[in-house]
């Protein structure tokens, strides 16, 4: 396959033009990268029928795949009309994640784009098992799309965590901001940078619920130190003071409220997997992924958006 950096859009198995199509086309044009679209098909009923009538099942499967390929080719053609190089394919596979990892190993991917499952009645995102698997284990940045009100994003919010001062955390924060800045520049979008400092929660974690709040002043001083670290980080990346937001309060609520009020299109955040645990993130990040009012771009340590 070509060694040119490209975007990978994971299309749904249904013949539906979802918001991820619009976002993928807009990002491919803005980032000046080719786009490859793949859909994964698998019908359990056909697989079971194949045990008893393999020839009939093969014909039914081939017809089903051909219909999907034709539809996907038409969608690729619509995107290519905007000057984007687009290819597409349909793969019959029961477990898509392993197939996606083949794409990761064979294609130099800059970004994987996929629709996220959304439950509008509760105004929150319910990620399917594949979504969580990509967020947890995929080494390539993953963009989960909830809507395409602005296919080419206009407002981007980068979230960093400056509560810890280990060198690896500072490097990861730089990677998150770099990815957000690059995306904002390519899309001519507005960028905001945020950290939410919840000193009360840190105190409870360190001292326990039964301890008296004797160390309140210490944690307030820690907050002042982290504010300075945040300001220096923003300065280093050229984020103007008016676009820096160091907020004290509940992280999840504060970020979601800000994103809703400022019509954020994409939240750029970091995801890591805890060693020894089959978990995706820390509590705050995991809750944010479930409750974010907009699309999410997840960055992994050591991986940034390419251009």
Pick out its properties.
cytoplasm; 10-stranded mixed β-sheet; 12 strands; 307 residues; UspA; 21% strand; Rossmann fold; alpha/beta
What this model shows, in words?
The protein is α/β, with parallel strands linked by helices and 307 residues long. It has two domains: 115 residues, HUPs (Rossmann fold); 187 residues, Rossmann fold (3-Layer(aba) Sandwich), CATH 3.40.50. The chain is 45% helix and 21% strand. It has ten helices and twelve strands. The strands form two sheets. It has a ten-stranded mixed beta sheet, with helices on both faces. Strands 5-6 form a two-stranded antiparallel sheet. Strand 8, helix 6 and strand 9 form a beta-alpha-beta unit. The longest helix has 27 residues. The radius of gyration is 22 Å and the shape is elongated. The chain starts with 5 loop residues before the first strand and ends in an 8-residue tail after the last strand. Belongs to the universal stress protein A family. Its main location: cytoplasm. Required for resistance to DNA-damaging agents.
């Amino acid at each position: 396959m070509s060694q040119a950096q490209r975007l990978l859009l994971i299309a749904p198995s249904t013949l539906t033009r979802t918001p991820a199509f619009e976002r993928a086309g807009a990002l491919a044009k803005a980032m000046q990268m080719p786009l490859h679209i793949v859909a994964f098909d698998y019908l359990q009923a056909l697989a079971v029928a194949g045990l008893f009538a393999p020839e009939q099942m093969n014909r039914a499967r081939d017809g089903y795949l051909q219909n999907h390929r034709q539809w996907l080719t038409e969608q690729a053609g619509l995107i290519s009309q905007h000057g984007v190089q687009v290819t597409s394919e349909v793969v019959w596979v029961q477990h898509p994640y392993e197939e996606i990892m083949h794409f990761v190993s064979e294609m130099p991917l800059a970004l994987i784009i996929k629709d996220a499952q959304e439950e509008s009645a509760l105004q929150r995102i319910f990620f399917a098992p594949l979504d969580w698997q990509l967020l947890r284990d995929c080494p390539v940045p993953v963009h989960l799309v909830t809507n395409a009100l602005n296919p080419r994003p206009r407002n981007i919010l980068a979230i960093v965590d400056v509560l810890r001062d280990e060198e690896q955390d500072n490097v990861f924060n730089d990677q998150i901001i770099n990815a957000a800045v690059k995306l904002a520049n390519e899309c001519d979008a507005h960028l905001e940078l945020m950290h939410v400092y919840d000193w009360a929660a840190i105190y409870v974690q360190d001292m326990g619920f039964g301890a008296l709040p004797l160390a309140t002043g210490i944690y307030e001083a820690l907050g002042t130190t982290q504010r300075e670290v945040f300001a220096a980080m923003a300065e280093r990346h050229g984020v103007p003071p008016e676009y820096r937001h160091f907020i004290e309060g509940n992280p999840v609520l504060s970020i979601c409220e800000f994103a809703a009020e400022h019509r954020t299109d994409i939240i750029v955040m970091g995801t890591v997997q805890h060693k020894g645990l089959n978990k995706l993130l820390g509590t705050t990040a995991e809750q944010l992924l479930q409750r974010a009012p907009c699309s999410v771009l997840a960055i992994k340590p050591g991986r940034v958006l390419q251009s």
